[in-house]
């Protein structure tokens, strides 16, 4: 779905109140305040890509505006998601997850909808994007992601710049996409965000053990389709014992086998939900991601998602 909301459609004296009501009715509601809102205007464009949503917001504010999501609003509605903020124009500050950052053009930051935040935007013209991604779509462990929630991320170079460009073009060219493209676009945004977070986590690792864990995560990610991937091969590739490997994961509330299995299942689920892969047999998709026993895969998949692989495949073909 591609929807556009513009305050130009309402009288000037009612525009800020109209905008405030819109953001208050979001799935992760926020409250917005402005001391003198006369002259305020906003344009919001929303593009739904299945479970992932991209929103482009352009505002003109004569005075500093405040935006907050407090515990009461979280209790009112929490979609259990992450929201990537892509700041394209304008300046502001944001306090979230115990961090305070400055928002300048090119700044990215990740919000957790289950945590409160408070932000301020300077007067003038602002442009930003919001990419909302359900928590369970990011295969990185929640406690790992929490390490970078609210941090200032670079959207001007490298992976951050590529993620910014894809998000911008997703909105700009929304009318040109076929429904079947939604799955691929959402997967691309999730993959780029995962790559950006992994890069940031490795760069800011607080200990050699953290840095090793992030290198192992990247190693596993690149070899999910290899049936031989195991604690033994992972440990050998990083010149540590399997006992040390298990201890490294256990310290983070994980198991090696469980982590590999969850990452493989995530990839299988994506492929099964992709209408462009509707002709590929379920067992072939399972084998592509390292599951060599079709019956075992079906049982494991159902235990994780509460539904069968074929049911997920059926949903993808009936909704496109």
From TrEMBL:
<dbReference type="InterPro" id="IPR018060">
    <property type="entry name" value="HTH_AraC"/>
</dbReference>
<dbReference type="GO" id="GO:0043565">
    <property type="term" value="F:sequence-specific DNA binding"/>
</dbReference>
<dbReference type="InterPro" id="IPR050204">
    <property type="entry name" value="AraC_XylS_family_regulators"/>
</dbReference>
<protein>
    <submittedName>
        <fullName>AraC family transcriptional regulator</fullName>
    </submittedName>
</protein>
<keyword id="KW-0238">DNA-binding</keyword>
<dbReference type="Pfam" id="PF12833">
    <property type="entry name" value="HTH_18"/>
</dbReference>
<dbReference type="InterPro" id="IPR020449">
    <property type="entry name" value="Tscrpt_reg_AraC-type_HTH"/>
</dbReference>
<feature type="domain" description="HTH araC/xylS-type">
    <location>
        <begin position="214"/>
        <end position="315"/>
    </location>
</feature>
<keyword id="KW-0804">Transcription</keyword>
<dbReference type="GO" id="GO:0003700">
    <property type="term" value="F:DNA-binding transcription factor activity"/>
</dbReference>
<dbReference type="InterPro" id="IPR009057">
    <property type="entry name" value="Homeodomain-like_sf"/>
</dbReference>
<keyword id="KW-0805">Transcription regulation</keyword>
<dbReference type="Pfam" id="PF14525">
    <property type="entry name" value="AraC_binding_2"/>
</dbReference>
<dbReference type="InterPro" id="IPR035418">
    <property type="entry name" value="AraC-bd_2"/>
</dbReference>
